[in-house]
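User: Methylenetetrahydrofolate--tRNA-(uracil-5-)-methyltransferase TrmFO. Structure?
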Amino acid sequence: MTQMLNIIGGGMAGSEAAWQAANAGLQVTIHEMRPKVETFAHRTGNLGEMVCSNSFRSDDHEQNAVGLLHWEMMQAGGLIMQTAHKHRLPAGGALAVDRDPFAQSVTKALQDHPNIRISYDEITTLPDDGHWIIATGPLTSGSLAEAIQAETGAEALAFFDAIAPIVYAESIDMGKAWMQSRYDKGETEAERTAYLNCPMTKAEYEAFIDALLAAEKTTFKEGETAGYFDGCLPIEVMAERGRETLRFGPMKPVGLTNAHDPDNKPYAVVQLRRDNALGTLFNIVGFQTKMKYGAQKSVFKMIPGLEAAEFARLGGIHRNTFINSPTLLDDQMRLRAKPHLRFAGQITGVEGYVESAAMGLLAGRLAVAELSGQTLPPVPGTTAMGALVTHITGGAEAKTFQPMNVNFGLFPPVDGIKGGRRNRKDRYKAYTDRAKADWQAWLGQTAQNAA
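Assistant: Predicted structure:
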């Protein structure tokens, strides 16, 4: 193939799209504005940089929809999942990675690929010709976002995504904290002790909630509204919904036994997850926040074990823009008004690293088929990949469209399998068994078409 595919954005989606297209023989140029043009959330110019959590979430491909998506991407030779497994850290049943080596490996793989060129420039307008994938993610530059809005004639939707703080391990008081994964989950000792736990009594929890609610928060710019994605709510917003909300969310004490005081069950538990292979950094799980930096330090140091905590990174908050994909994209993820422009990743209204990379994988393969004069068969809606792309390109209600993680609620029912909580395990296994068979059949069919 002699035609060029241009990809705007070198995050999860852009990196995966480039890898898929280049491996199919297409010449690819990745246009990444970093490090020349910085964002407040990124620290490097690496491709595939993780700016929030270091977790790809559950790796369980039999009982979890995101774990199934991991599996499907691995079957398709996905760069992001392959690299994640090379740099994984103990995290119970989750797939967490050492974020810097992970991004460095993604960058090197793309730099070394003979069919890929990387251009570190900012694209500020929508190209009028050529073949393009726009995978600029939640931090799309202002100029390009304005160009997209002008072209589509639709308001870009937005919510605010929050970043959790990271603590230096050596500053944590292990006389109060202990290592344990919830329900001792994991096949190895490292997995079963992947999380660091800080217990709270009822009095400590109540004082923490009081301080959290009273803490000074960042203010929004004029015209902005706090339309948070429910899967990434700041902890103070959760606390505002009810004083017990955090005890049933990121601070739930279930499945944990205080190693220092096994006879007394904690009223609440704050969990931290290892953020690098050396084990020198831990991020506070689920503690996305919009508190000001000074307030964060004082409030978080109320957590038993973190009284002397030193922070490698404090929490933050940023605007996350995405398009109304059900009204703007066709089933090939192309902009209906300009079909030479294909969108992928978080800007399409999927939420999460895994979902973003998955949509990049699919966009890359769709672009290869189009440039070679073929049309791929629709991805079965019974697969995780198909359920997700169906949702964003027409399955969702356009009037109420919001970012979505992959979940079994997007899958069509399996005949003969009962609903309800009691049958959930069997139902999820039926979903994943069916999805795996259908995904492998689709991959085989697309490979035959390519041949």
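The chain is about 35% helix and 15% strand. The CA atoms of residues 42 and 383 lie 32 Å apart.
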